[in-house]
Amino acid sequence: MNQDILFRNNVTVKGSGAQSLLFAPGFGCDQSVWKTVSKSFEDDYQVILLDYVGTGNSDLRAYDAKKYSSLDGYAQDVLDVCSALNLKDTIFVGHSVGSMIGMLASLRHPDYFSKLIMLGPSPCYLNMPPDYYGGFEKQDLLGLIDMMEKNYIGWATVFAATVLNNPDRPELKDELEERFCSTDPIIARQFAEATFFADNRKDLSKVTAPSLILQCSEDIIAPDAVGQYLHQHLPYSTLTKMKATGHCPHMSHPTETIDCIRHYLQENTLGGIQRDKGTMLNG
């Protein structure tokens, strides 16, 4: 059964440290997006990488449209992987929607997780005036889903450039676009609906694991207001404003991403619950 789970999510385990670091990708991506960042931790940690069912080299036969119609299905897969590897007090590192998937998993099984590290997280992408600014109107997101249905390749080109927001790095845009295009368009659209129409704001106050919020500069997908909202509503959270621009700092600015994660882990080596909210501004 454990081998089935590890095969299903194409789980990779590297490194030999006593503490585990579990890396989860964002929407439309697989574990390879972490290649530079995760490698730098292999000497000190047990590094675990996975693909969501429907992406990368996961087992496509395991895809269930009903299960993965919400982020809960993906969170359950993360818990399955933790159980299969007998993990405890793992440091979860998630990008974008991967952050919320890890957060939901931590609410169901807190013992599996000691810390949550979130790159460009958002609990809700929709604007909910007057109290919440997520960055998108509902019509924007419906248009995005519609474009995915009608012209998936065209959507992938536009969305990759929007997400990265690093016009001087065309090779990164091409790399991300290629990842989007390698995913089945139907599965990608269903994942997009589960991602962009989720609202996990009510879950934030229940989180017990200390968390690091890495807020990028000029992030169209998760703007500054979202990072501030998360910091205000996530207990035991630390907010770090990065110099990195765009929504994928692990791809565009891996060195800064590594440094931010290492700094946080070194500052929080004693474990337990960090009771004072802290804000650290880099640069």
Automatic annotation (TrEMBL):
Ranges where the AB hydrolase-1 domain occurs: 21-258
Gene3D superfamilies named among the record's database cross-references: alpha/beta hydrolase (3.40.50.1820)
Coiled-coil region list: none
Listed InterPro entries: AB_hydrolase_1 (IPR000073), AB_hydrolase_fold (IPR029058)
Similarity annotation: Belongs to the AB hydrolase superfamily.
PANTHER family linked to this entry: ESTERASE-RELATED
Protein name, UniProt field: Sigma factor SigB regulation protein RsbQ
Source species: Bacillus taeanensis
